[in-house]
Amino acid sequence: MLKKIAIVLICSVGIFFLFNNLLMPWYVKHSDLVEVPSVIGMTFIEAKRVLENSGLQVKQGDVKYDETKPIGQILEQNPPAGQMVKGSRRIYLTVCGGEQLIDVPRLVGRSLRDARFYLQQRGLDIGETVKKFSNEFPDEYVISQIIQPGSKVKRDTKIDLIISNGPEIGNLRVPDVIGKSLQEAKNIITESKLKVGRITYIASSESPGKVLDQYPKKDKSANEQTAVDIFVSKLIIIEETVPLEEGDSEDNTKTTEPETNNDKTSPAPGIPKGSEQE
After folding, report:
1. Which of 119, 160, 240, 276 has the fewest CB atoms found within 10 Å of its own CB?
2. Mind giving me the DSSP string for 190-240?
């Protein structure tokens, strides 16, 4: 009888020990698990409330851009819905940032071609362009941009630009002095607020001192005090053969000297034979 009681007591103690040290810790440990609810498609505030009510913590993770979804909508969650996790487990949420915005680059000082390439690399493009005279920027370079650098815009936005048309051309017109005498040409040029440039004398059948050509040509635009080069006719030197008198031993030729021109002339490099420059 006593032996049976002892066996029962020993078994009871063993069962108590097993329950207290093995079954209870396992039960306590596994009873703390919760199933992760799905929060995809909710706003961040809604998802936070649902997860916290399930005994879980919330942490905003990445931001992904998707123009087809509202800004702030949950796109992904980690761990995923349906997974069993310990209570207070942190759930990371990926939020929609809407359509991705692009920083507008600085285009001032770039050529028009370079600016277009630079914008297209970023999903943008050139909009309207306006030409403006500029002494600072060469022709076809960007002077200004309507949307300032650093501004955030949607993809495919067009950026309007102001483009250099080069230096402003003067509002004076070059007069026509061809056919005028040298002095008349000088007077006309100075009266037109321009100045006489290089004078080149060219042998010609035209009467001496007559303007044969000019540069710039007539009616060209010019700034004040622009130099006008003129080309003026001069006498052709003609050599004549003269018969010798009897007993004359001199050379049988003589030269007819040209008429003296009041304007001093001197040969200049680069002028063809038969022409002189002043």
Report:
1. 240
2. HHTT-EEEEEEEEE-SSPTTBEEEEESPTT-EE-TT-EEEEEEEEPPPEEE
- Identify the DSSP state of 167: S
- Say if residues 92 and 57 touch (Cβ distance below 8 Å): no
171 Cβ contact partners less than 8 Å away, ≥ 6 residues apart: 221
Residue with the two structure tokens 């040029």: 189
Architecture (CATH level 2) of domain 101-164: 2-Layer Sandwich (3.30)
Check if the beta carbon of residue 253 is closer than 8 Å to that of residue 239.
Answer: yes
- pTM (two decimals): 0.42
Lay out the sheet containing 90-96: strands in order across. Answer: 57-64, 90-96, 74-78
Query: Do 84 and 56 form a contact (C-beta atoms < 8 A)?
Result: no
DSSP 58-108: EEEEEEE--TTS-TTBEEEEESPTT-EEETT-EEEEEEE--SPEEEPPP-T
Fold of 172-243+251-277: Trypsin Inhibitor V; Chain A (3.30.10)
Length of the chain: 278
Are residues 273 and 234 in contact, defined by beta-carbon separation less than 8 angstroms?
no
Q: Tell me which of 184 and 257 has the higher pLDDT.
A: 184
- What CATH topology corresponds to 32-99? Trypsin Inhibitor V; Chain A (3.30.10)
User: CA nearest 272: which of 202, 221, 219, 204?
Assistant: 202
Bridging pattern class, strands 158-164 and 125-132: parallel
CA 247 to mean position of chain CA atoms = 88
